[in-house]
């Protein structure tokens, strides 16, 4: 699950799509580019009134959408927003033990939201964390290993 996937956005040169950058890691080893196979959970909102028109967590049995980046397989906003995203595992793994605890994931989420002036209450973070661990902690040991994080069937946030 690349937390960046959920939180990273871009802009459309034609001005047709409005996207917001909520989180961007300080360091990046690999960025997504046109032609990459990516997957993402996403929510779609109308710019005119903010109403939600799509949520990947409630459609298609809650599975993220796989697509080739930059070739028009998905909504333009998703294509634009996913361009240049970065892998986030190393940014989240504070103790560098090659696994992510719920505390590490929560810490990262809180930092990102607070940094952007959008702090949330604990139930908000817990809902996201529980979703991440339900789908990614395959051996149910309470940690997401680097291997679990990087498997092909892994859900993006």
Automatic annotation (TrEMBL):
Uppermost EC category: isomerase
Alphabetical list of InterPro entries matching this protein: EF-hand-dom_pair, EF_Hand_1_Ca_BS, EF_hand_dom, PPIase_dom_sf, PPIase_FKBP, PPIase_FKBP_dom
Annotated GO CC locations: endoplasmic reticulum
Domain EF-hand: 124-157
GO molecular function terms attached to this record: calcium ion binding; peptidyl-prolyl cis-trans isomerase activity
Cross-referenced Pfam families: FKBP_C
Domain of life: Eukaryota
Keyword terms: Calcium, Endoplasmic reticulum, Glycoprotein, Isomerase, Metal-binding, Repeat, Rotamase, Signal
Reaction(s) this enzyme catalyzes, per UniProt: [protein]-peptidylproline (omega=180) = [protein]-peptidylproline (omega=0)
Enzyme Commission no: 5.2.1.8
Protein known as: peptidylprolyl isomerase
Originating gene: FKBP7
